TrEMBL record:
The keyword NAD is annotated on this UniProt entry: yes
UniProt-listed InterPro entries: 6-PGluconate_DH-like_C_sf, 6DGDH_YqeC, 6PGD_dom2, 6PGDH_archaea, 6PGDH_C, 6PGDH_NADP-bd, NAD(P)-bd_dom_sf, Pgluconate_DH
Residues that hold substrate according to the record: 95, 118-120, 172-173, 177, 268
Protein name in UniProt: 6-phosphogluconate dehydrogenase, NAD(+)-dependent, decarboxylating
Phylogenetic lineage: Archaea, Methanobacteriati, Methanobacteriota, Stenosarchaea group, Halobacteria
Length: 300
């Protein structure tokens, strides 16, 4: 399949690279000439602009957008739209709000797929989990690429109509907040509790057969191995919060109680003040799965 990839940050490069490795032809563009050159070195055909990328694609264009959520998506769509018709497919693989995805699907001539993408840069080798919303025919047309970018055929599915993919990803992120908070609180109790424990040893042991084993717990083990049981100079500051906020707002609108997700979100915001081990671990875990910058303490 011939695929156009617009947006070649960490995640966009992975989309391009995994598609190339699966034998697909990739035409790539980014506002950064350096990012476009990096994709070209991996085997993609570089484009000079969005218009150039569209011109290089044949009929029935397949385009994957991996640009920051918000205005950047609308601006890119405005550039792409004149080159598209109803036989084309556009995938938004970013963290867009599901209601914005519904609006864009209605306004775009091409079939619009909202694709929640989980796994972060750490999943470059294993592949992503892809939650897709939009027309069934468009999803089926993109299956060869989804197979390549995801962990495989089991790593993606069509969640439903337009907006469903980003809706499921929004709730996924709320669950992620809660899981990180639970691990953080458990290790905080162990750290301040009755015994002198090695946190890496605890995490490793739990990861081998325990009910609570998971990839996030593997990242806890990694964090303690690299930072030490006391997390060294990792600060009590957890960035992010937009998708968790969306989740809580949706829960309020649907009158569904989500107290654990809400509390995890509140803890994240409170971390902009000072002081808890659990939030320092959450800070470090965000590096583990998303390679987000680790805030460090100045007084360590």
């Amino acid at each position: 399949m011939e695929l156009g990839v617009i947006g070649l940050g960490r995640m966009g490069q992975i989309v391009a690279n995994r598609s190339l490795e699966a034998g697909h032809d990739v035409i790539a563009f980014d506002l950064s000439a350096e990012a476009t050159a990096e994709a070209a070195e991996a085997g993609a055909e570089p484009a000079d602009s969005v218009a150039d990328l569209c011109d290089r694609l044949g009929a029935e264009k397949r385009i994957w957008l991996m640009v920051p959520a918000g205005d950047a998506v609308d601006a890119t769509l405005a550039d792409v739209e004149p080159h598209l018709d109803g036989d084309d497919v556009v995938v938004d693989g970013g963290n867009s709000h599901f209601e914005e995805s519904v609006r864009r699907a209605e306004e775009t001539d091409a079939a619009y797929l909202d694709c929640g993408t989980s796994g972060g840069p750490a999943s470059a080798e294993a592949g992503f989990s892809l939650m897709v919303g939009g027309p069934k025919w468009a999803y089926e047309a993109m299956v060869p690429v989804f197979d390549a970018v995801a962990t495989g055929p089991e790593g993606h599915d069509r969640m439903g109509e337009s907006g469903a993919g980003h809706y499921v990803k929004m709730v996924h992120n709320g669950v992620e907040y809660a899981l990180m908070q639970a691990y953080g609180e458990g290790f905080e109790l162990l750290t301040d509790g009755r015994y002198d424990l090695e946190m890496e040893s605890v995490a490793r042991t739990w990861n081998n057969g325990a009910v609570i084993r998971s990839w996030l717990l593997e990242l806890c083990e990694e964090a303690f191995r690299e930072e030490g049981s006391d997390l060294g100079d990792v600060a009590d500051h957890v960035a992010g919060g937009s998708t968790g906020t969306w989740t809580v707002r949706e829960a309020l609108e649907q009158e569904v109680p989500v107290p654990i997700i809400y509390q995890a979100l509140a803890e994240r915001f409170d971390s902009r003040n000072e002081g808890r081990f659990s939030r320092r671990l959450a800070n470090r875990l965000r590096y583990g799965f998303g390679r987000h910058e680790v805030a460090r303490r100045d007084d360590a």
